[in-house]
Design goal:
The structure is a homodimer. Chain A is mainly alpha-helical. The first copy, chain A, is built from 14 helices and no strands.
Chain lengths: 405, 405
């Protein structure tokens, strides 16, 4: 059978809807991962207090935290089971599945990490970096999911969400590092620097978030910001400047943990709204596309199918009707092209920067803020874009046979 | 059932292979479209000579040209029938199918155009612009196909092919315009300018081609270039500068047509090699991925499946084996990321420029070279990138409610 222009108009609309439905599924997966990261962050902070106090504080809470993580893992598993691994491939499926494999493997390393924490057979900094690595792998999955979007409004929502999640993770690292220091009643110079860098990096991520977020999320975030207490700022100042904080170690540490946890839980509320906005955006786009598809089918139903033989002369009125439908579908898609191209470029650049940072972190033992500063300084010195520097670094690494994750 | 990291490693490899197989299919479709464009170009030139000679020359050849186009259409139809419209969606499927709908509709307008040409009831410039529009729609499909690639080496081959096809189309427009002028024994000032612009634009396209083409194609192209005859250059000079060429009109026109056709047929040989390189590149990448997939499965077969219960402690050696496989798949994909990001940016920028040119051509009646010059002059005056200017133009057009195709 020879396929006609209208067959492909219909197929185009159908593919558009399928793509949006897959994005909705991605949105739900990202939501479940956001919750999993949230409880992992809390488990990391709790482990830091437990290890920092030589097992005196919060030993009883460790198993509760682990249980919360397991529940969140199950929710992620449910979303993963909804993915059809053998059927319809999604855009970017191979990269996405590869990231999911990384996530699942990282989760399988948690039981042995927990056993070491419980037995106090691991140092606090080592435990912290292992938890942070697990969380980093989860964030990389969210980033890859953002790259599957072929719709500008959804891309925008995913970029806002990813940037916010990155900022929240840096805030949670600040909590964990501070908790360890207050518990041990000691902050060395390196920790001061790490804390300062975490504060600067957080602000950078939230700045990106504000560029892409919708007004409701922005308003909620402004509200959260104005709620940051003076107590929190005082704690921050002590952690960043003093070697030995005053007061009873466990009391101060627990108060720090409560104050920062209130802040991070506030961030989670913004993140939940971002997630709602994301899935609502997908649902709205699906409804729009389905409605457009119905109209399309009605109009096509009114067009008599002509003899598909090549030499057939098609009545001009009929040809115009078909042309209108062809152009309508084309216009709807192409209206998004310019914006999507810009977002894709933004994403591609960020991806390269993230990978270059990963390289510096893995092979040169840098923290995320250090890696970012290194790249930024190189870019400023050479008067180039951050992504160009990252690109050059990855090319060199490829030649030297090192791999970035 | 809970899915494991290894399930997703396998799914990632499977998706990679599926994506490459779909690219191979795209490559074959592009090859069939290349042939269809080639015979459409020849039909356009023949129609120009027929119309320019008031029906005295080549009336007998018109039906032969039409038959060749119909054969090429059938080959394209076969490739389209191989696409699974209801099953596995491809990356970028909605845009691709929308372009195919445009192609099929444009082909359905040919019988009535041919009837008008045959009856001499259409002016030569109008017939030429209708043929050129049909060809432009075909080229837009090739461009969209280039955007489906998630593999840098294939993207590179597709970009080289697309740029070359654009250049060849401009060479064929030069042939058709010259044929009309030599037949009518008259070139007005506007035609001189059009011909000059077509020559400059051709060189620009072939320059892009040389940036992305593989060495074999480049060598063949160099060989073609050195074969351009002095007779061809003399013809070009006359067409671009003289108002009334000397000699018997039909003899000169037919000689011009032969000389330029030899040149364009030479280009088709390069294009065929580009097509071979493209499909061979896809096949090679499929073989590589399949081989890697087999090795992966062998290694996975040697790993005992562990109890997927969350709290299970996994033996360290087992965990390391899984990690190696997870990272191997991740490395293979990410090695391509930096290059792919660059190619995607290139493609996205070109897409925006093509659309802005389309806008100028449709709504301001410009030719392709004029539209390009307009954009380039604006970019130079404002000291901006061509794609930034195009982007700004599309944004303005979107606000004004005009659509670009």
């Amino acid at each position: 059978m020879t396929l006609s222009a209208l067959d492909f108009v219909l197929a185009s609309k159908r593919s558009e809807i399928t793509g949006l439905q897959q994005l909705l599924q991605m949105g739900k997966l990202v939501g479940a991962v956001s919750q999993l990261i949230h409880v992992l962050q809390r488990e990391r902070g709790t482990a830091n207090i437990y290890l920092g106090s030589q097992g005196k504080t919060w030993g009883d809470r460790l198993s509760e935290r682990a249980l919360q993580v397991q529940l969140a893992e199950q929710a992620v598993s449910q979303q993963l089971a909804a993915l059809d691994l053998h059927g319809q491939p999604m855009a970017n499926a191979s990269r996405l599945f590869s990231r999911i494999a990384g996530v699942l493997h990282s989760l399988s390393t948690l039981p042995s990490l927990r056993a070491q924490v419980q037995a106090l057979s691991i140092q606090q900094p080592d435990a912290m970096s292992r938890y942070s690595e697990v969380i980093r792998i989860h964030l990389a999955l969210v980033f890859e999911a953002a790259d599957t979007s072929g719709d500008p409004s959804v891309s925008r929502a995913l970029l806002a969400m990813f940037s916010f999640m990155q900022g929240k993770e840096l805030a949670a690292q600040e909590r964990a590092l501070g908790a360890a220091g207050f518990t041990a009643r000691h902050f060395d110079e390196q920790t001061h620097q790490q804390l300062l860098a975490l504060i600067v990096s957080q602000e950078r991520c939230f700045q990106t978030f504000t560029e892409f977020a919708d007004p409701r999320c922005l308003a909620l975030w402004q509200q959260q910001l104005s709620a940051d207490s003076s107590e929190f700022e005082r704690f921050r100042r002590i952690a960043c400047t003093r070697a030995t904080p005053s007061g009873e170690a466990s009391d101060v540490a627990l108060r720090w943990f409560d104050v920062t946890t209130a802040r991070i839980d506030g961030m989670k509320i913004v993140e939940d709204l971002l997630e709602d906005v994301l899935t609502e955006c997908c649902r709205q786009r699906i409804r729009d596309a389905e409605r457009a598809g119905e109209l399309q089918q009605q109009e096509i139903g009114q067009i008599p199918r002509h003899d598909p033989h090549y030499a057939a002369l098609i009545p001009p009125q009929l040809s115009r009707s078909v042309l209108e439908l062809v152009e309508q579908q084309s216009r709807q898609l192409q209206a998004q092209d310019a914006e999507l191209a810009g977002l894709r470029t933004t994403l591609a650049e960020r991806k390269v920067v993230e990978r270059a940072k990963g390289l510096l972190m893995q092979h040169h033992g840098m923290s995320e803020p250090q890696a970012h500063k290194t790249l930024r300084d190189m870019a400023m010195n050479q008067n180039k874009k951050l992504s160009d520097i990252a690109d050059a670094m990855l090319s060199v690494a490829a030649v030297l046979g090192k791999s970035a994750s």
